[in-house]
Amino acid sequence: MKIVQTELFKEMEKGLEGKEWSSVLMLPSFVMRKSVEGKSGEYYALDLGGTNFRVLRLVLKDSKVVNVQQAKFKIPLEHVTGETACSDGLFGFIATSVKKFIGDSRVNYPPLGFTFSFPMTKKSLNSGILVRWTKSFTTHGVVGEDVCGLLADQFKRHSVPMGVTAVINDTVGTLVTEYFEDDTALLGVIIGTGFNVAYWEKVANIPKYIRANPSADPSHSMCINMEVGNFDSPHMKVLKYVANEYDAKIDAASPNKKLGLVEKMVSGLYMGEIARMALLDLKKQGIIRGLDGKLEKKNGFPSWHLSGCVADDTLRLRKISSILKKNYGVNTTLEERKAFRLVCGWVVVRSARIAATIIGSVVLRTGYEWDCTVAIDGSVFEKTPGYPELMQKAFKDLYGEQPFNIRLVLTKDGSGKGAGLSAALMS
């Protein structure tokens, strides 16, 4: 764990300096740590992080969210991937969806936050240049472009009286959402289908931002989007100590080989597949049997079934028996079910310990390990039994005798509410 911490500190420094390549991008969000007092009124939010797109209207009174209205729109596949997927189609769909949502409401350029949950670089609060697509998106004409500018063009074309106040990603939104409730909120974290961290950093410690903004106040704090899922990629200097043959197979079969190596060990998108491959090896060794059919197919063991196996504390592991019988038609002995739980438990423990090592290291770097809140969203953290407790145990191992008080708080909908609250914070 200490080896990972040391390497992470080096990569963070390089990313903040911005003069040489770093596996963690350390992207300035331009969202500043400010007082939330006195925020009232209507704020809008857009949330684009997958093939479902959301529009939200938040009403704040004395900095508290008193009402939320939202609508979800399914993005047609032709705007997401394939030869027909282009920027005009994608952002035109977003603009027309917003127009449907506001209907006859009289809006005149209200504060609007836009959660764009893809790697982007920023030169201002309301600009975001897409670095690369993830999550199956391959829409042409967007990489290297300012997504707020593309959206503004479509707003104008479709007569939508809005403009982006702040563009963020979901980790920034998660942090800001909790910050409105608790000013000790220090980190925003996603542990779901992806893995990422954002945190408050002193402007004085962000040389690349100061070079681009010489008049910046070094005493202020800004939210940094780490893009930490890519840590230690592509060479795996320190992750090699916790990696195995299944990680290599996962990476080799992925569209982003040698990238996102931490994310592939931590996130729910891969946990089930890692467990499935390990279970098939146990079958080859004759330890378990009967894994024909679904379980022999790629991605045939989803992470929510893994969570169900981990949660089984019955004497004869009947929950595991039910999961395997109902979903895979497999009858198992008690010893086989113990093997299932052991493998699934190993995958979960490793995920939690890696996530906690990274989170705990970032907290330690800020100097607030003695009292801080970490806001976390995502299905792995929320729905995997014992995951928060495993993280706290890892903190103890990481810090040793050093006292710490890190509160892990489930913070829902940072990607939706967080966008609107970021617009409120910065307007």
TrEMBL record:
Pathway involvement of the protein, from the record? Carbohydrate degradation; glycolysis; D-glyceraldehyde 3-phosphate and glycerone phosphate from D-glucose: step 1/4; Carbohydrate metabolism; hexose metabolism
The terms describing its cellular component in GO are: cytosol; mitochondrion
Q: Which family does it belong to?
A: Belongs to the hexokinase family.
Q: Which reaction does it catalyse?
A: a D-hexose + ATP = a D-hexose 6-phosphate + ADP + H(+); D-fructose + ATP = D-fructose 6-phosphate + ADP + H(+)
Domain Hexokinase C-terminal: where?
187-424
Q: Which PROSITE patterns match?
A: HEXOKINASE_1, HEXOKINASE_2
Top enzyme category: transferase
Q: Supply the InterPro entries for this chain.
A: ATPase_NBD, Hexokinase, Hexokinase_BS, Hexokinase_C, Hexokinase_N
The UniProt record lists the Hexokinase N-terminal domain at: 4-178
**Record's protein name:** Phosphotransferase
The EC number on file is 2.7.1.-
Q: Which GO terms describe its biological process?
A: glucose metabolic process; glycolytic process; intracellular glucose homeostasis
Keywords, sorted A to Z: ATP-binding, Glycolysis, Kinase, Nucleotide-binding, Transferase
An example Pfam family from this entry, by short name, is Hexokinase_2
Q: Which domain of life is it from?
A: Eukaryota
